[in-house]
Design a protein that fits this description.
Layout (H helix, E strand, L loop, with lengths): L1 H11 L12 H31 L4 H15 L3 H14 L4 H9 L5 H20 L3 H19 L12 H5 L5 H19 L3 H30 L4 H19 L4
Helix pairs in contact: 1-2, 2-3, 2-7, 3-6, 4-5, 4-6, 4-11, 6-11, 7-9, 7-10, 7-11, 9-10, 10-11
Length: 252
Amino acid sequence: MGAGLRLAVTLLTVVPLPFSGEAGRGTARRAMVCAPAVGLITGGAAALVLVGGDLAGLSPLPRAVLAVAATAAITRALHLDGLADLADGLGSGRPADEALAVMKRSDIGPFGVVTLVLTLLVQATCLASAPHAATAALVAGVTGRLALPWACGPGVPSARPGGLGALVAGTVPPRAAAAATAVVLVAAVAAYAADGPGGVARALAAVAAGVGAALLLLRHAVRRLGGVTGDVLGALVETAATAALIVLAARP
């Protein structure tokens, strides 16, 4: 599991953990199961910016924008890039092979630009209005990465013969994804327990909404593209995190 966690951190962040040897599908499976833990790094970066901005006297919206920027920086914006590429591929309306070719291009088309702008706006405004914004950033970060073990289940193929999608597709058994989900739910409940039953319900709803939104997008992407790619996985992370933030920003 240690090698899996190191690979997960290496794949999903800029944190330079040493990883020796070639990653096989067994290590890739463990990395996807450990992926939610990486949300503590990405969400933690955003939480630190939010707390620091508060101490510096910044108003909620600038703090939130800087927190979103910190998350993008610590992930090399890879998930955002995947979201934009998937939006362009699906938005093209072309057959799977041509849509995949669109996604491999280095430029971003209009569908990708609009999707990125709207997603970042939603994330920033939700963080600005969420009670306990730093906690919300942590829960959203973990929930976003919880989409990955579910997206790598045995019934999900790879859309291409190579790349990250081919390495991780079909590697995670349902029981492992369920176990990761249970851990995330317990952690989210603990984070909001001080808010009473309403806070607990909101935490549970946030995790459920995040995973549910990601699974809906996964189903559509698999139907249109024939499977998952690295871009699809990145898009699922951003989708799940954004959906969780929307719930956490709702008024008590």
